[in-house]
């Protein structure tokens, strides 16, 4: 699971109103290189919940992202920032671990890089 | 409604006075509404559809059985508080377990990219995030290299196949996507919704697709059509009977569907109150012959023969109508023995009767549940989703397809 996906994932248990972001319990994180595409990264930026990304990256062992969401100028011209964002979003993989609902504490397992977000009968 | 109809038949037949030969009920095997009686007969049609003609002796029994089975269902429906997001048994057994068992074989047969889907994906702007709900073996993930795809499917074995190809995927339920809203630039649902067994679940899945894309984002949905181009295919499918209705749960079950509620032949008007000649009955152009009570009193032998002939004719018409109206099917999947051995799932599937062996074909035969869509059905369903508009609709290669666009922010 990459952080780009984590930034979208939310706990959908019945009645939960505060299911985002899921807290990451990182067991095994690996890095896989992906070609850098600055335009894609700029496009992604608008979708992101910045705090969730920073916290998620930290959980996966990457602390290079600024705490505060950068402004447009940075996005436009600062390539080193864009590369950090690229690295965080696309190159870090949670292979083993869990995603934890902030409201209920429910753990969604991640195995071989695949999160299992299926709910049990009583959660639906 | 159907209860009222059946009770009226029962009342009228029990109030018949003298004759024993009069009064027959033709029960149309209307898709899955057929009911087993002791006189169930296989009709010589290629499909497995069953239809019943009961003699006057058993008409009351038949009617009673229908009433009973319907009232059980109605009780289940009214007392059922199961969420639309709960998976009904029929889907657990005949969708989830099947795909889990056949995943690698299934994947090996799913490689041809459908041009219309490819065109849709290629039309999306560079850098789009595309969500594929029910991605199967990931055939479309990464099809447009300038976009980022996130796929999900309820089948872990299929997701594993995607993951092995380096795709970004997760295991999730299309009726309850674990995504926050407005994230995706576009979403696709290719040959997925026809595996959902109730209308409310199918509608929910469409709502989910719309929910997870951004305002102004596009959603492409394709489903199998009832109107198949290759009609010989239909002979290999098993239309479902009431036996499987037991497995269907919750509101939106077939007994409660608009198709039943709005169907004129289930209404009281279709029962002739007075003596109607057989000729008049034949003249009725409605394809849904269904529950007609042939008048009982004073039928002569000649009229009886005419009645029989017209019954046969009506039966053929109703079978035609059945074929047209039939939308619930089991579609077989033949898993070759050598493939089945690899997956341990087949041993237990055979043991529990979920699958059968076909030695002649050297394959384990599984059945997949399908609700195939009739013309306009997908559109009607999608048009009930509030914040999206249909922007394209087409029929292609035996599939009904639509493209929706989610309402932009400053509209509602």
Automatic annotation (TrEMBL), chain A:
Gene3D superfamilies according to UniProt: 2.20.25.10
InterPro entries assigned: Trm112, Trm112-like
Family: Belongs to the TRM112 family.
Entries under PANTHER family matching the protein: MULTIFUNCTIONAL METHYLTRANSFERASE SUBUNIT TRM112-LIKE PROTEIN, UPF0315 PROTEIN-RELATED
Protein name as it appears in the record: Multifunctional methyltransferase subunit TRM112-like protein At1g22270
Organism the protein comes from: Camelina sativa (False flax)
TrEMBL record, chain B:
Keyword Mitochondrion applies: no
CDD domains hit by this protein: AdoMet_MTases (cd02440)
Keywords, in A-Z order: Methyltransferase, Transferase
UniProt entry tagged with the keyword Hydrolase: no
Pfam families: Methyltransf_11
Domain Methyltransferase type stretches: 131-221
Protein name: Alkylated DNA repair protein alkB homolog 8-like
Gene: LOC104787286
């Amino acid at each position: 699971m990459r952080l780009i996906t984590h930034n979208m994932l939310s706990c959908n248990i019945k009645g939960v109103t505060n299911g985002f972001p899921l807290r990451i319990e990182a067991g095994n994180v690996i890095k896989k290189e992906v070609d850098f595409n600055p335009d894609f990264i700029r496009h992604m930026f608008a979708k992101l919940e910045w705090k969730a990304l920073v916290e998620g990256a930290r959980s996966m062992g990457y602390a290079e992202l600024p705490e505060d969401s950068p402004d447009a100028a940075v996005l436009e011209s600062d390539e080193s920032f864009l590369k950090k964002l690229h690295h965080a979003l696309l190159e870090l993989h949670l292979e083993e671990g869990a995603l934890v609902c902030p409201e209920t504490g429910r753990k969604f397992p991640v195995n071989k890089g695949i999160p299992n977000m299926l709910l049990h009968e009583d959660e639906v | 409604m159907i209860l009222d109809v059946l009770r009226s038949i029962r009342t009228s037949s029990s109030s018949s006075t003298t004759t024993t030969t009069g009064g027959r009920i033709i029960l149309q095997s209307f898709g899955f509404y057929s009911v087993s009686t002791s006189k169930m007969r296989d009709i010589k049609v290629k499909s497995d559809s069953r239809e019943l003609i009961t003699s006057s002796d058993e008409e009351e029994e038949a009617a009673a059985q229908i009433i009973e089975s319907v009232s059980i269902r109605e009780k289940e429906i009214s007392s059922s508080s199961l969420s639309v997001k709960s998976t009904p048994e029929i889907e657990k057994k005949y969708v989830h377990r099947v795909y889990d068992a056949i995943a690698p074989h299934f994947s090996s047969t799913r490689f041809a990219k459908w041009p219309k889907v490819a065109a849709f994906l290629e039309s999306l702007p560079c850098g789009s995030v595309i969500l594929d709900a029910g991605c199967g073996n990931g055939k479309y993930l990464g099809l447009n290299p300038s976009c980022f795809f996130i796929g999900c499917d309820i089948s872990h074995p299929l997701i594993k196949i995607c993951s092995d190809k380096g795709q970004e995927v997760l295991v999730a339920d299309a009726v309850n996507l674990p995504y926050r809203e407005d994230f995706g630039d576009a979403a696709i649902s290719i040959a997925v919704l026809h595996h959902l067994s109730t209308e409310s679940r199918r509608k929910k899945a469409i709502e989910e697709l719309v929910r997870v894309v951004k305002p102004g984002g596009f959603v492409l949905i394709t489903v199998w059509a009832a109107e198949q181009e290759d009609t010989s295919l239909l002979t290999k499918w098993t239309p479902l009977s009431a036996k499987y209705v037991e497995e269907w749960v919750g509101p939106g079950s077939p007994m409660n569907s608009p198709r039943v509620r709005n169907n004129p032949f289930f209404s009281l008007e279709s029962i002739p109150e007075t003596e109607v000649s057989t000729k008049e009955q034949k003249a009725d152009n409605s394809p849904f012959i269904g529950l007609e009570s042939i008048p009982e009193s004073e039928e002569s032998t000649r009229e009886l023969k005419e009645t029989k002939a017209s019954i046969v004719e009506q039966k053929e018409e109703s079978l035609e109508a059945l074929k047209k109206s039939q939308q619930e099917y089991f579609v077989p999947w033949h898993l070759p023995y050598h493939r089945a051995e690899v997956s341990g799932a087949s041993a237990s599937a055979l043991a529990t009767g979920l699958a059968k062996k076909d030695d002649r074909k050297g394959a384990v035969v599984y059945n997949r549940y399908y609700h195939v869509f009739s013309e306009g059905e997908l559109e009607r369903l999608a048009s009930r989703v509030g914040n999206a508009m249909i922007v394209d609709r087409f029929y292609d290669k035996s599939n009904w397809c639509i493209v929706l666009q989610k309402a932009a922010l400053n509209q509602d």
